[in-house]
Specification:
alpha+beta; 3-stranded antiparallel β-sheet; 35% helix
């Protein structure tokens, strides 16, 4: 079972989506989590994930597969971004792509 969850970082007026894992207290650092994968800006993250879901065998990032993440995990991440609610019921502030 993986303990990864989606997180966000705002920088330069943009929102970036990451897969983050809890890593506990590390020597010489006060951080208890680390970003293990970047999905990019919120403008493309959901589109990228949906494409991976449709073409899972060919396009899902190898590093995520090797870390033990599956199509089911991807489905959960997509749902989180679409609904703004995590699988644990927490609110996830996601800026959907603005239509012109």
């Amino acid at each position: 079972m993986n303990l990864g969850y989606l997180s966000q970082v705002r920088s330069g007026g943009k929102q970036y989506i990451y897969l983050t894992e809890y890593c506990g207290i590390q020597p010489f650092s006060s951080k208890t989590e680390k970003h293990i994968f970047s999905f990019g800006s919120s403008q493309i993250a959901l589109l990228k994930m949906k494409r991976w879901y449709r073409k899972f065998e060919k396009e899902f990032p190898e590093e995520l597969s090797e870390a033990g993440y599956s199509k089911e995990d991807l489905k959960i991440w997509i749902k989180t971004l679409e609904t703004g609610i995590t699988k644990n019921g927490r609110v996830f502030q996601f800026e959907k792509k603005k239509r012109a």
